[in-house]
Amino acid sequence: MKIAVCIKQVPDTNKVEVDPVTGVLKRNGVDSKMNPYDLYALETALRLKEQYGGEVRVITMGPPQAEAVIYEAFSMGVDDGYLITDRAFAGADVLATSRAISQGLKKSGEFDIIICGKQSTDGDTAQVGPEISEYLSLSSVTNVTEIISADAKSITVKRTLPLAVETVKLAFPCLISVEKDIYIPRLPSYLKKQATKDRKITLFTLGDFDDTDPMHYGLNGSPTQVQRIFPPEVNDKREMWQGESGEIVSKFAGKLKELKFI
Amino acid sequence: ALVEEEPVEIVDKSKWNGIAVYVDHEDGNIHPVTFELIGKARELASKIGHEVYCVFMGSGITNSADELLHYGADKVFVYDDEKLKNYISETYTAVFEDFINKVKPSVILVGATTVGRELAPRVAARFKTGLTADCTILDINGETDLIQIRPAFGGNIMAQIVTPNNRPQLATVRYKVMNSPERSDEIHGEKIICKIDGRKLETATEVLEISPKEKVKTIESADVIVALGRGVKSKDDIKIFEKLANLLDGEIACTRPLIEAGWLDAKHQIGLSGRTVRPRLIIACGISGAVQFTAGMNNSEYIFAINKDEKAPIFKTAHYGITGDIYEIVPALIKRIEEGR
Ligand SMILES: Cc1cc2nc3c(=O)[nH]c(=O)nc-3n(C[C@H](O)[C@H](O)[C@H](O)COP(=O)(O)OP(=O)(O)OC[C@H]3O[C@@H](n4cnc5c(N)ncnc54)[C@H](O)[C@@H]3O)c2cc1C
Ligand SMILES: Cc1cc2nc3c(=O)[nH]c(=O)nc-3n(C[C@H](O)[C@H](O)[C@H](O)COP(=O)(O)OP(=O)(O)OC[C@H]3O[C@@H](n4cnc5c(N)ncnc54)[C@H](O)[C@@H]3O)c2cc1C
């Protein structure tokens, strides 16, 4: 089975701050890590490989330092890594990101299945997986909670819906987005880390793609525009009740009555 | 320059009219987020003089479509086809494509349900247009540009996003973020039966089985929640608060540490790594108000908080903050409610 996993590098914290003057995210000094939801995608891929044979590659789009997440994936047992990096891709929204990753996936060779995480912890849209499947004309399912079985031509998975659990059979090639907790991700291995620390990562820039139109990527290729970023509102119409508890309780009960809860 | 610059295609916005809502349903049972979105669509449409559309796809759903006309849709486009019995992203995207090409709506609102979150991005990618996820505030300007506000970074920041050069503009919205309009007894608008070429509904994807999940009372569907934090001293004490929840016809929920202690089942957890709730009333008892918790409940209609620390951050989120001991306030409140009956 030829498996490709999409992984993203994200800030290590989501306690981000907005510069009140410029309205820009303060990213300096923030460490990066692998998007935690992608660890579940990786674990799923590695288990499929262990059970059915084949190989697992990872692909990421990001600045040059995003290679760190590829090395982390190597130390978990991934065979190959591809980094899509070019200034032309900067400022991409979901549409432009998915286009670049789809182009990169095509260039990275054949695949039976692409596995994505549920969502990222920064942009947090959960849209990249389904958009990649559209670009590559693949059947896809999200919210996968279990792999039932696979053969040379297809995979059968369980996906969760609000009121039901669905068993779906997808023909290869296809794309799945897995739920967190599908499997417990393995820890990186020190030995594997040592053995893969000099492994070569394949770099893709715009010129490597089939579609080299710069208007299709990055800020130029992004239909959505972020106009401003601001901290969430603090609710200011609040009342504080302090003092003797009998009085507070009367007030409390009175308010609940007024609001028709009792 | 060596590279010939392609002229940027300017979309003719006057050709794209109407605010459309995707009708989320299971076997014709319409998900209530749909009505909330019709209400929002009506508000947006009236600002720019557009109509409100619904697109409803499935099998054996034609009669259910009438319900949408009680909530203020001007036109309901119904695709009723056996091949649409099960939701499959490729076939539903094909129907969506047909609808968009036929109707050319300016805006499409999709409930951020499991299906909506998978379908909307596929449709957006097919039309090479923008999709803003999980919007919490929507407005529209004179240019028919949708002003979309959404949280990111786990709710720690908000972003205002527009899609000024592409149509249609897509946005997903979670359940219980917008207000549902009142159901009117009268029917307004019309139902339009649509057909799609069966070849467009061919797919290699097979839904083998659908098994219903056990129906449980969920905190997401509760109107009233009594939420417990580490101020509760022992597992046994939960009983006290359950009594309050019962009196108010509500459910018990909690912060993560109580789940970790094994006092309650994980499905009771509110917050970033738990459930998002939006009850009419929530009473936070002995909860400090970490952002990972408040992100899951700050859209509740009436938030009460009881905490003995007057500086607890929960008081920034609460509408009514009560400084006091939960072991004093809650039993006294229970007594007061019982006496009042
Ligand atoms: C505050 C803010 C709000 C935003 N809102 C929107 C919005 O509403 N609409 C929009 O179109 N864009 C939005 N963006 C831009 C969007 O976050 C980026 O385009 C991002 O590159 C991809 O989206 P995501 O982070 O939401 O990933 P998700 O769709 O949440 O990620 C799902 C999965 O896709 C894969 N994946 C995602 N990114 C990569 C990558 N770079 N490399 C490899 N695999 C990847 C991973 O498997 C991941 O688990 C926003 C950005 C910010 C900062
Ligand atoms: C990635 C991540 C995800 C997380 N996700 C979640 C999540 O989904 N949900 C969640 O809840 N947490 C989550 N957390 C944990 C979160 O950061 C907080 O640690 C947690 O919410 C605190 O729970 P608490 O308010 O019950 O406890 P504490 O912070 O310990 O607060 C207890 C409060 O009770 C008050 N108190 C004590 N005794 C009394 C009394 N007798 N009467 C009145 N008041 C009293 C104290 O003054 C204090 O304010 C997450 C953390 C991380 C890092």
TrEMBL record, chain A:
Q: Which GO molecular function, any one, fits this protein according to its record?
A: electron transfer activity
> Residue limits of the Electron transfer flavoprotein alpha/beta-subunit N-terminal domain?
22-213
Question: Gene3D superfamilies, per this entry?
Answer: HUPs
Q: Name one Pfam family in it.
A: ETF
Question: Record's SMART domains?
Answer: ETF
- Its name, as the record gives it, is Electron transfer flavoprotein small subunit
The organism that produces this protein has a lineage beginning with: Bacteria, Bacillati, Bacillota, Clostridia, Eubacteriales
